[in-house]
From TrEMBL:
UniProt domain FAS1-like dehydratase: residue ranges: 6-134
Superkingdom of the source species: Bacteria
Name of this chain's protein: MaoC family dehydratase
Pfam (any one): FAS1_DH_region
InterPro entries referenced in this protein's UniProt entry, alphabetically: FAS1-like_DH_region, HotDog_dom_sf
Alphabetical list of SUPFAM superfamilies matching this protein: Thioesterase/thiol ester dehydrase-isomerase
UniProt source species: Tomitella fengzijianii
Amino acid sequence: MADVTAVGTEGVPFRLDVERGKIREFARATGTTDLDGIDAQEHPVSQPTFLTTALHWQTGDANPWPAVKLDQKRGLHAEQEFTFFGEPPRAGSRLEGRSTITDIYTKQGRRGGEMTFAIVVTDYYDESGRLVAQAKMTGVETARPPKEDEA
């Protein structure tokens, strides 16, 4: 069961360098067929979902998610949302990310049982301190673990 006292828990800031090669690798991994635009630009714009790669950099105290204490046997990634305050970051950008658990709430599930939702918001700032993007991830814990034949 989620720990509602985790709301407000903040991770320590972490750095995310937006690298040209990583933008290309991410594009290939997500099925982009037109890599010419990336290759032709010195500082290509990252794909809108590129910020998911921050999980590779957000380790230890930078990640507040463990404070939520969802049972991972019953956990699902429910939703991911990105908001940009301008274009997505370009190669060569250095961002500082800061994540906060912003909400934990419950809802009645359709199959019976209560579902617990938890939201973490990560703000990304450029080197001048300007907010350039925000990622909002919603995780859910189902009321019961899946049965063996449902897994």
